């Protein structure tokens, strides 16, 4: 059973009550359809009330939901003939970054994304979605390959951040991320990035230097986690809720500041409630971006990317 988020408790209890009455109806000769329908209407109203007024910390919890669809889930739903490619040709293969080639609406594309696990065993294999340097070098290898063959690049961002361990630093974590930033800025093919869960720090930005950046409605994109920010600012990680509000890390805030291009709406309650429908929403955003960016040549794409990031921020004298 999935872990219940704090703000979801009333919804979960009401769902359990409905399920209990439905099971009772099946096993006993009692008609409780009126009561069940009344509770279902109450559930719908409660969901609209709670999910329609989510605070930043609530969105953080949804973005971290253990059943939230991952990069591989969306690849399976959106792309045909996907072939996963492995290794950075220098050290090894990092399971926290997946990538390969496939087709979208019959157009060849390169797909790259962070990959976390959905249970303990898979999370250990994927290093909880926190890439080592070889992961970013694999991503860059696939990006340069895409540029060589003229394929658009689609990136899925979903990581707490790059792995901060000793081994990663010894193998050049900072250099790997920095090189991705430089190289992505100069790619002569369309680059589309979509934040599907957490977008944490440089580990996320290493796949985020794109012409178009989209975010799922309940995803987050930030320089540091709310817990990390609270530890630094107030020496107390328990103040993460206040930090999430102050940092403005949600999709509506980032859209307002011009840091992302489009908010992709989510299913009521979060993408994990209906991954298939959520994938269609993402597909619509990708299709729209490809139509716009496909009309640009290499020089225009590089200039568009440069101007996009140059415009970010508010300056005053």
């Amino acid at each position: 059973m999935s872990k219940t988020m704090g703000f979801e408790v009333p919804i979960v209890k009401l769902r359990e009550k409905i399920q209990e009455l439905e099971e009772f109806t099946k096993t006993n000769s009692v008609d409780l359809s009126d009561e069940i329908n009344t509770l279902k209407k109450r559930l719908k109203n409660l969901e609209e009330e709670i999910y329609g007024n989510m605070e930043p910390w609530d969105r953080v919890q949804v973005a971290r939901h253990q059943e939230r669809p991952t990069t591989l889930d969306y690849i399976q739903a959106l792309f045909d003939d996907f072939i996963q490619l492995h290794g950075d040709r220098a050290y090894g293969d990092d399971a926290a970054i997946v990538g390969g080639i496939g087709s979208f609406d019959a157009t060849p594309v390169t797909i790259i994304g962070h990959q976390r696990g959905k249970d303990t065993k898979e999370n250990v294999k994927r290093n909880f979605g926190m890439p080592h340097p070889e992961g970013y070098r694999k991503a860059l290898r696939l990006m340069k390959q895409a540029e060589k063959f003229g394929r658009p690049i689609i990136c899925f961002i979903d990581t707490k951040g790059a792995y901060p361990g000793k081994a990663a630093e010894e193998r050049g974590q900072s250099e790997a991320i920095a090189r991705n930033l430089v190289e992505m800025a100069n790619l002569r093919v369309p680059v589309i990035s979509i934040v599907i869960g957490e977008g944490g720090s440089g580990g996320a930005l290493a796949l985020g230097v794109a012409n178009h950046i989209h975010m799922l409605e309940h995803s987050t994109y930030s320089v540091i986690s709310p817990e990390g920010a609270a530890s630094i600012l107030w020496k107390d990680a328990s103040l993460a809720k206040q930090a999430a509000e102050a940092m403005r890390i949600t999709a509506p805030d980032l859209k307002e500041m011009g840091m992302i291009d489009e908010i992709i709406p989510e299913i009521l309650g979060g993408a994990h409630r209906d991954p298939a429908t959520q994938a269609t929403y993402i597909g619509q955003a990708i299709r729209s971006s490809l139509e716009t960016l496909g009309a640009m040549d290499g020089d225009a794409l590089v200039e568009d990317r440069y101007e996009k990031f140059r415009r970010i921020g508010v300056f005053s004298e």
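Residues 9-27 form the longest helix (19 residues). The two ends are 54 Å apart (CA to CA).
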